[in-house]
Write a structure and sequence with these properties.
3-stranded antiparallel sheet; 14 helices; elongated
């Protein structure tokens, strides 16, 4: 079956899909396209309707002239009026000679404008797209298309076909068009193989896709609950969550307990995953000073911690800078500043300034609004 005709499959995961509507029409105009196809505003001509339907969302690789079956929900935009927000879409092959001509001449294929599109369709008729899919070398039969241009057309068509193949595959497993576009941008033609091999990589490689979304995709792909890739991803996710809460590491016992509970698996599987991740360099494992447990760090955060500690030691051990200023002069300078700036420093702020002049390294910390910037 041609890729154009494959169903897009299940729809998005988070929105209420009960209000979805299906609209089928021809893409007449692209008003705006940005973020590499992640967001598009387009006008859809729907048979039987006088007004265009405005669709917004990810329409990666879809040109003017394409026939689309769009699934989504209509939203009332206060500035632009009703808009159909895309949850998923299926591209349908143009069925007429005129439709195919417009489709090919829309800029879909670099080097093929309306004139060459007309020549191609004049040569192959309604079988044009079928021939481009199955026998692309025959493009050289078209009058005026030399060898170089014929090669470029074949390569460009193959690339577009690959985009459609990836988008159809991902939407078939419930991935929204916007995330499908990001995944394609990250992995290109290898997207399907990468996702099949380890969908959990999406949680760490593609912005906006978290562990839970990747886990749902993995279930749909038939990956077992206790699969090594799932357990390892769960460990990394648990560490990431701890990092978001301000923790640089987790005690191993606490990590095992938390990850096992989250994944609903035997803690022994988590132990094995931590060891594998340690050997692979994805996490760092270090003994704690009290020798009661070990600390497990996300590898990047571990490197950052070590670098920060090394820099602080370097500064602390550096040759002292002689300020040559007495305490009275420092206090006088602080008083002068307070008068000129028309403010009064808190006692701790003034102490911090004195400490800066006495010490090689000073760490100033505190919550928002306590005066760190003023210091």
């Amino acid at each position: 079956m041609d890729l154009f005709e494959r169903a897009a499959g299940r729809r998005g995961e988070t929105a209420d899909r009960s209000r979805d509507e299906i609209v089928e029409g021809t893409l007449e105009r692209i008003v705006f396209a940005g973020a590499g196809g992640e967001f598009t505003v387009a006008r859809l001509k729907v048979e039987g309707k006088r007004e265009f339907v405005t669709v917004v969302g990810a329409l990666m690789g879809v040109p003017v002239g394409a026939r689309l079956r769009v699934v989504g929900q209509t939203e009332a935009n206060p500035k632009f009026g009703p808009q159909l927000r895309v949850a998923s879409f299926t591209e349908i092959a143009p069925a007429t000679v005129e439709g195919i001509k417009r489709y090919l001449g829309s800029g879909l294929i670099k080097g093929i404008g309306p004139e060459f599109a007309s020549r191609i369709v004049a040569t192959f008729g309604v079988r044009t797209l079928e021939i481009l899919d199955a026998e692309p070398q025959r493009i050289a039969e078209v009058s005026g298309i030399g060898r170089v241009r014929a090669t470029a057309v074949k390569e460009a068509w193959a690339a577009q076909r690959e985009i459609r193949r990836v988008m159809v595959f991902l939407q078939g497993y419930g991935v929204s068009p916007a995330f499908a576009a990001r995944i394609y941008k990250r992995y290109g033609a290898a997207a399907i193989a990468r996702v099949r091999e380890n969908p959990y990589r999406l949680a760490f490689d593609v912005w906006g896709i978290g562990f839970l979304s990747a886990d749902r995709l993995a279930v749909a792909l038939g990956i077992a609950k206790d699969a090594e890739v799932r357990v390892e991803a769960g460990v990394r996710h648990t560490l990431d969550e701890a990092g978001s809460g301000g923790h640089c590491y987790m005690r191993r016992r606490a990590l095992v307990e938390a990850a096992a509970a989250r994944l609903e698996i035997d803690p022994a599987l988590v132990e094995g995953a931590i060891d594998r991740l340690g050997r692979a360099g994805e996490v760092a494992i270090e003994a704690l000073p009290d020798a009661t447990d070990t600390a497990v760090f996300e590898a990047g955060l571990y490197r950052a911690e070590r670098t920060a500690a090394a820099e602080l030691l370097r500064l602390a051990d550096a040759e002292a800078v002689q300020i040559g200023t007495s305490q009275d002069e420092i206090d006088g300078a602080i008083a002068d500043y307070e008068r000129v700036a028309n403010l009064s420093l808190a006692r701790q702020q003034a102490e911090a300034l004195r400490a800066v002049l006495r010490s090689q390294v000073v760490v100033i910390t505190g919550g928002p609004g306590v005066g760190k910037t003023t210091i």
